[in-house]
Amino acid sequence: MNRVLAADIADLNRLVEIDSEVIDNSSRREIIKRAIENGQCLIAKEEEEITGFLIHDTSFFECAFISLVIVSPSKRRRGFASLLIEYMVRSSATEKIFSSTNRSNTGMQKVFHSNGFVESGMVENLDDGDPEVIYFKAKPFFSDC
């Protein structure tokens, strides 16, 4: 059974391990730790195994912003990124949700599009020759009526 939970500090080493599989170093350890401590990190689990994580905050013009989505390379293409994003969008404290990825990251662009995000602009000069594409999604309105 796949599920999403708030990350706990006990998960830190596993999250850093997954992140290191992707970026080949542990340079984001403090970022991940701070996100966990601030309640801004979600984890995806398959049974009891952590398969990926998402970091978010509301520092982007007071709107929710997904700053990082990481899935273990051995667990990709199995819906874990979408599971994390869907959960975050449903539980968002703000009506607008933003995120971004490099123009070269076509895999993440597909994930955003398949989860109902639309392109909302571009930022040049963050990574030389690889602009950052901003994505947006409005939080769905659910009614009990």
UniProtKB/TrEMBL annotation:
One Pfam family in the UniProt entry: Acetyltransf_1
Gene Ontology molecular function: acyltransferase activity, transferring groups other than amino-acyl groups
Organism: Metabacillus indicus (Bacillus indicus)
Entry superkingdom: Bacteria
InterPro entries: Acyl_CoA_acyltransferase, GNAT_dom
Protein name, UniProt field: Acetyltransferase
Residue stretches making up the N-acetyltransferase domain: 2-140
